[in-house]
């Protein structure tokens, strides 16, 4: 039994405009689902879907006394992270996707997708999810419709975006929306029993930047399947932003309040996946006199406000955070946020029905069910096995964060005072450095390199890779043109464009020990940055930027010795010369699309090395 056009019309709510209904009919005719359902975003819908998923075995309900209204999902081992090698930018011209993206001809990709999606929903329900990225109706916000055959996607989208009736109302007002089509790629033959994590070994995560379309096939994992997030809010939005003079960035947003003066600062920071955005966004300052509040932990959309300043919103409504390493010690606010109403994916299950992962506060119990669904004991841990997958995640409502900023849903966003770029660097990069000039700021972003983490399946963890602006996997167009876009916006905003700072929490000493305590102590770096940005303190002109004078930097109680400080600021000219050779080599793949200002910054960098 397959859904007909008539069934789709009957299922559509009264406020669904004709173009949405026609889109749903077209996808239903292609995917051939057994049922069709339009999501309204209600509590009742959540209860029904989560209950159905518990019954089907896709979800385990956690102990309501420990973790109310929360669930655990276990994926297949082949579907645990983003798949960069299967992520495509389908622009008309290959050079518009650029050398760092996988490019595919749009017409050819459409032909592949038409074949893959033909009957892909068989035996399943097709869910139609209207959603808003950003506060409903806000001037920086954008709308979309995701169609999917995965209830896991519906309930995760409900946490991560504003879904349902109100988003459909806005679409009904005639605002533009992005069509986003998803399938796990596992049609069911009549009578065939479903698995607990349907997906397909073959995956296609595809983007059509010129027509603002997203098609994703074969994966149920967050970054590949929750299409509002990386696919829309970064890849498609970055191309929309370029056309319309705004910015879509892989950045957290936080508010720092100087409690003495009452002055508020807003900071955004771009770090590659699993390099500390969620942690910094929820930081608990270890120094007196400051308060941090969270606006967003992963994505920032920024646009010049009516006051001329760069304003940022968080397009998301929830946090899709890395679980391992998260604890009351490292990120208490994340722990508080996920006390209820949270979906966990690929963490371990305790015998009393709660969650566990490596690095959580509680010691490893004598018995767990690991992320693969197997028994797990300390003997397994002794063999080096992990009970939770290194990229296991929590999906949790941002509104539950105890330090969520009162203005986190301000439609016009918050005015940004400083922009940070960082990565995971055991050597070379010092704790914090300020740009010499706006173009140097863009150069700092463009030359980010970071040790690879577990956030994508198909790149080797631990090795160093270039990740400009932490956008390598997320920029929807030619990366060198993106640098040019940054330079243009800097020019457009002039003096009000925030200063850029390069930071590194991960430098190690010769014994492999972190030189910087990190986490809450990163408030010390923020303290220096805002004092520096407001012209209170002078800096030292260094090779990579302007460094703090140690006496200006609050190290009281940090446990960082003078020797450690010096090691963090040890600039080896030979190592930096080699790094610049490598950066130049990296830039060369973009040919003459690299903006002249960026080439000049590289030359100036070399001069500073020579003078060091
Ligand atoms: P995505 O959500 O994938 O984009 O990653 P993210 O940038 O939000 O990373 P997250 O904050 O989840 O941090 C990932 C890992 O970095 C965790 O294992 C943290 O414990 C670790 N980490 C975060 N901040 C610090 C820090 O200041 N110092 C050290 N040493 N580790 C940190
Ligand atoms: Mn991210
Ligand atoms: Mn994060």
UniProtKB/TrEMBL annotation:
Record-linked InterPro entries: PEP_carboxykin_GTP_CS (IPR018091), PEP_carboxykinase_C (IPR013035), PEP_carboxykinase_GTP (IPR008209), PEP_carboxykinase_GTP_C (IPR035077), PEP_carboxykinase_GTP_N (IPR035078), PEP_carboxykinase_N (IPR008210)
Residues annotated to bind substrate: 82, 221-223, 273, 391-393
Primary location group: cytoplasm
Binding note for cofactor: Binds 1 Mn(2+) ion per subunit.
PROSITE patterns referenced in this protein's UniProt entry, alphabetically: PEPCK_GTP (PS00505)
Location of the Phosphoenolpyruvate carboxykinase C-terminal P-loop domain: 246-608
Domain of life of the source: Bacteria
Pathway assigned to this chain's UniProt record: Carbohydrate biosynthesis; gluconeogenesis
Swiss-Prot/TrEMBL cofactor(s): Mn(2+)
GO biological process, one term: response to lipid
Record-listed E.C. numbers: 4.1.1.32
Family, per entry: Belongs to the phosphoenolpyruvate carboxykinase [GTP] family.
Function: Catalyzes the conversion of oxaloacetate (OAA) to phosphoenolpyruvate (PEP), the rate-limiting step in the metabolic pathway that produces glucose from lactate and other precursors derived from the citric acid cycle.
Protein's name in the database: Phosphoenolpyruvate carboxykinase [GTP]
Organism of provenance: Actinomyces gaoshouyii
Lineage of the species this protein comes from: Bacteria, Bacillati, Actinomycetota, Actinomycetes, Actinomycetales
């Amino acid at each position: 039994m397959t859904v007909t056009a008539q069934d789709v019309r009957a299922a559509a709510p009264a406020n669904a405009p004709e173009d949405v209904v026609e889109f749903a009919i077209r996808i239903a005719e292609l995917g051939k689902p057994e049922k069709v359902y339009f999501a309204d975003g209600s509590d009742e819908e959540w209860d029904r879907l989560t209950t159905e998923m518990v019954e089907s075995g896709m979800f385990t309900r956690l102990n309501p006394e420990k973790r109310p209204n929360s669930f655990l999902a276990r994926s297949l081992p082949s579907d645990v992270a983003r798949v960069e090698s299967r992520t495509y930018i389908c622009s008309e011209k290959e050079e518009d996707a650029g050398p760092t993206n996988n490019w595919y001809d749009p017409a050819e990709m459409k032909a592949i997708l038409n074949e893959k999606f033909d009957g892909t929903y068989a035996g399943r329900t097709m869910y139609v999810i209207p959603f808003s990225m950003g506060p409903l109706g806000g001037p920086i916000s954008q709308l979309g419709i995701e169609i999917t055959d995965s209830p896991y996607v519906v309930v995760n989208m409900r946490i991560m975006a504003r879904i349902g009736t109100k988003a459909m109302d806005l679409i009904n007002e005639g605002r533009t929306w992005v069509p986003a089509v998803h399938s796990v790629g596992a049609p069911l033959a009549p009578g065939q029993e479903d698995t607990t994590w349907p997906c397909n070994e073959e995956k296609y995560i595809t983007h059509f930047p010129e027509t603002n379309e997203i098609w994703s096939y074969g994966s149920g994992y967050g970054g590949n399947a929750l299409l509002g997030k990386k696919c829309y809010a970064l890849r498609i939005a970055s191309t929309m932003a370029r056309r319309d003079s705004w910015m879509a960035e892989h950045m957290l947003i936080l508010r720092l309040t100087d409690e003495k003066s009452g002055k508020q600062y807003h900071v955004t920071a771009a770090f590659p996946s699993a390099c500390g955005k969620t942690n910094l966004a929820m930081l608990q300052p270890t120094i007196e006199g400051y308060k941090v509040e969270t606006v967003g932990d992963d994505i920032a959309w920024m646009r010049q406000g009516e006051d001329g300043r760069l304003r940022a919103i968080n397009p998301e409504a929830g946090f899709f955070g890395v679980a391992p390493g998260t604890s009351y010690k490292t990120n208490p606010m994340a722990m508080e946020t996920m006390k209820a109403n949270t979906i966990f994916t690929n963490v371990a299950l305790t015998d009393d029905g709660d969650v566990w992962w490596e690095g959580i506060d509680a010691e490893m119990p004598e018995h767990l069910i690991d992320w693969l669904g197997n028994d797990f004991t300390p003997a397994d841990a002794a063999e080096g096995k992990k009970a939770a997958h290194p990229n296991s995640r929590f999906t949790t409502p941002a509104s539950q964060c105890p330090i969520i900023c009162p203005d986190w849903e301000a439609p016009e966003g918050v005015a940004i005072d400083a922009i940070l770029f960082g990565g995971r660097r055991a050597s070379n990069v010092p704790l914090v450095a300020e740009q010499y000039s706006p173009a140097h700021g863009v150069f700092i972003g463009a030359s980010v390199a970071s040790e690879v983490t577990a956030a994508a399946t198909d790149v080797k963890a631990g090795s160093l890779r270039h990740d400009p602006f932490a956008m390598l996997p997320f920029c929807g167009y030619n990366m060198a043109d993106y640098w040019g876009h940054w330079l243009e916006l800097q020019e457009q905003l002039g003096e009000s464009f925030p200063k850029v700072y390069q930071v590194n929490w991960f430098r190690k000493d010769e014994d492999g020990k972190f030189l910087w305590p990190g986490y809450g102590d990163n408030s010390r770096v923020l303290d220096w940055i805002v004092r520096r940005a407001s012209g209170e303190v002078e800096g030292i002109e260094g090779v990579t930027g302007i460094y703090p004078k140690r006496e200006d930097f609050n190290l009281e109680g940090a446990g960082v010795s003078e020797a450690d400080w010096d090691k963090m600021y040890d600039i080896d000219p030979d190592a930096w010369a080699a790094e610049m050779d490598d950066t130049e080599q990296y830039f060369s793949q973009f040919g003459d699309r690299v903006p002249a200002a960026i080439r000049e910054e590289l030359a100036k960098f070399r001069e500073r090395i020579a003078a060091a």
